[in-house]
Amino acid sequence: MKCDPRNRFVAIPTFVLVVAVAVVAACTSPPDHPTPPPDSPSPDASPGSAGAPDGPPSVIGPIGRGEALFHDRRLVGLGGNGRACSDCHVDSDSFQLSPAIAEARFQRMIATGVDDPLFRPIDADDFVASGDAASDYDSLRHQGLIRVRMPLPANIKLVDPASCMTGGVPAPCETATSYLTSPSTFTDVWRAVPSVLNVSVSGSDSHGPVWPRDPGPQGGYQLDGRVDTLQNQARAAFLSHAQVMTVPDPGMLDDLATYEKGLLAPAEPPLNELETKGKVVFDRACAQCHNGPGMSTPITGPVGIVRFFDDHAACPRSVDTVSPPRWNFPPCPPALARKEQTYEIELADGFKMRRTSTDPGRALLSGFVFSGPFAADGSCLHPPCGLPFADDWQKLEMAPLHGISKTAPYFHNNSAATLEEVVIHYEEVFKRASALFPPPEMPHLLTTDGVHRDRPNVPSERSALVAYLMRL
Ligand code: HEC
Ligand code: HEC
């Protein structure tokens, strides 16, 4: 079957699911499909349709052109590696990419011998060592993760793992007594493909709190909010993911943005009794961060919930030094743990410290990291110190939640397989905060009224909360 993006939209509502799946499968296959000319008629992706309309195809216009471009693998005149936006933001997968789909496509590529542009060396595990000959797609196939290359701020360097020694014996880089930093000016982090449903309401907004540092002090695009507009986001995606030689012109980027803004997640349906109970828990424990139309805008409170947050999904996970431990995150699976890298961070006065993470988040944008106050004895390792809420280490933007039942796995590194795992993870996030901020401290994270520490979600609320999340 030819993979004309238009087939998908025409076919899905018309045939039974099996046929739709076959069409989508055909459309995930490589690259002999015709690219619709920019002005070709294209289906209406009007708001609410999530790109799978049942109305008549709309005619020429920014939405139609944007939609064609979103699905265009050839990108005539731009160069590129055969990838379309829709190779990662898969229409049939709520415009994200699940590991199951990535693996199915990989297996099909092997079985048929037909190239699939989802798999390009730039995202392969062995890219750094093998360059264009790289071919190990484990992270993409099994975790659905994409390599994102970030320039390092001037005060952050990667520690060379081979150089980490203590007394002449190889040692963990964070505690090694001798080590060398790498001359690399960039680092690679591995991130899930977020859904582009609801991007019209998940970018920056003016009603939540303002972060004290750029970029995007009021939020933005990408998991760390570093990009201001959908046009700039698309330009970066063309360059990095599709490896184009020529940047698309502004009109094309406008069309893409117009198309993306029309992709909406379904609205919240009426709730049954259990789900209604879950919503009460959500409003108390979660909506302080997942608020606003995209469920991605934090509220501004007396103590101020911040714009970006470290929800401890990155690896390694925080371990309590007190026994019995007051919080207990499940350790990261080995496939994620092997992506941990140690960074050397130099503070303004020349003091150097090391931190290990799979994803330093916004610290890669600003270089701004506090050294404390959570040294083993609660003291500040080296000034400036501050609340862990307030620096940029591992900070990411609050994720939008509409349509979340269809976008497993969860978190920026796809580390939670189910919504139940997410909810359990947050029980531990709250336990950790409760332990580190004993009364009378009253961070907004833990209190709805400044008096009671009543926000944390607890195990007895799990099933109701999950039931509600499934309906978002
Ligand atoms: C190789 C896979 C891949 C391709 C191809 C790709 N993306 Fe993405 N996209 C990602 C990943 C991964 C992220 C998150 C990156 C980050 O946070 O650093 C992302 C983020 C986004 C976001 C931000 C969503 C948000 O809520 O902040 C938008 C919008 C987006 N992509 C649109 C596009 C468009 C438009 C194209 C085509 C020009 C495209 N993407 C091509 C993988 C891909
Ligand atoms: C203090 C702020 C904060 C609170 C409270 C909070 N979240 Fe989050 N949430 C975030 C941030 C930041 C992210 C993105 C981090 C990541 O992906 O690792 C996120 C991500 C998520 C995701 C993953 C979305 C995806 O597409 O992968 C889910 C699901 C989620 N939160 C649900 C909840 C639930 C349920 C609660 C309440 C029990 C909650 N959150 C409470 C800040 C918060």
Mind explaining what this structure looks like?
The chain is α+β, with helices and mostly antiparallel strands and 472 residues long. The chain folds into two domains: 5-144 and 193-261, no CATH class; 273-339 and 360-469, Orthogonal Bundle (Cytochrome Bc1 Complex, Chain D, domain 2). It contains 15 helices and nine strands. It has helices at 5-14, 17-27, 62-70, 85-88, 99-112, 127-130, 138-143, 199-202, 230-240, 250-261, 273-285, 334-337, 363-366, 419-436, 462-469, and strands at residues 145-151, 156-158, 165-166, 169-170, 186-192, 308-309, 341-346, 352-357, 396-397. The strands form four sheets. It has a three-stranded antiparallel beta sheet with strand order 2-7-8, with no helix packed on it. Strands 1-5 form a two-stranded antiparallel ribbon. α1 runs antiparallel to α2 (17-27), α3 (62-70) crosses α10 (250-261) and α14 (419-436) crosses α15 (462-469). It is globular, with a radius of gyration of 23 Å. The relative contact order is 0.12. Mean pLDDT is 85; it is low at 1-57. The protein binds heme C (2 copies).
Shape: globular
Given as residue ranges, the uncertain stretches (5+ residues, pLDDT < 50) are 1-57
Total separate domains? 2
Strand order in space, largest sheet: 2-7-8
Helix fraction, binned, reads 25-40%
Radius of gyration: 23 Å
H/E series: HHHHHHHEEEEEHHHHEHEEHEHH
Please give the alpha-carbon distance between the first and last residues. Answer: 35 Å
Q: Classify the beta-strand content into a percent band.
A: 5-15%
Characterize the largest beta sheet: strand count, sense, and whether it forms a barrel.
3 strands, antiparallel
Return the average pLDDT rounded to an integer: 85
Beta-strand segment tally = 9
* Ligands and ions found: heme C
* Total helical segments: 15
Would you tell me the structural class of the helices and strands? Answer: alpha+beta
